[in-house]
UniProtKB/TrEMBL annotation:
Residues 13-76 form the Glutaredoxin domain. One of its GO terms (cellular component) is cytoplasm. PANTHER family: GLUTAREDOXIN (PTHR10168). Its main location: cytoplasm. Keywords: Cytoplasm, Redox-active center. It comes from Linum tenue. It comes from the Eukaryota. Belongs to the glutaredoxin family. CC-type subfamily. Coiled coil: none annotated. CDD domains: GRX_GRXh_1_2_like (cd03419). InterPro entries: GlrX-like_pln_2, Glutaredoxin, Glutaredoxin_subgr, Thioredoxin-like_sf. It is found in: Cytoplasm. This is Glutaredoxin domain-containing protein.
Length: 103
């Protein structure tokens, strides 16, 4: 999990994803529409992606789904949490504070 937190701290928005996950695609599109600078790690395309996936499952919860999103180095959660932030209007401010948006 140390490696996950290290990767999450290197960029304003870090998303651990799977290339075949429809909710991952939805959240990537949302961040793109915001113009957010998002770093995406496609775990199913990484040599050690399975290890990272297992570490995330242990930390976030075994039943958790992808994506797993960090903003400003802090774990925000998955698609439900990101969509809740978006719908209540706080996602944009959070992205700005993290330095993911230039506006």
């Amino acid at each position: 999990m140390d490696r996950v937190f290290q990767l999450a701290a290197e960029r304003p928005v870090v998303m651990f994803s799977k290339s075949t996950c429809c909710m991952c695609h939805t959240i990537k599109t949302l961040f793109s529409d915001f113009g957010a600078n998002t770093t995406v790690y496609e775990l199913d395309e990484m040599p050690r992606g399975r290890e990272i996936e297992q570490a995330l499952a242990r930390h976030v919860g075994a039943g958790s789904d992808f994506p797993v999103v960090f903003i400003g180095g802090k774990l925000v959660g998955g698609a439900n949490e990101i969509m809740t932030l978006h719908l209540n209007g706080s996602l944009s401010a959070m992205l700005k504070r993290a330095g993911a948006l230039w506006l």
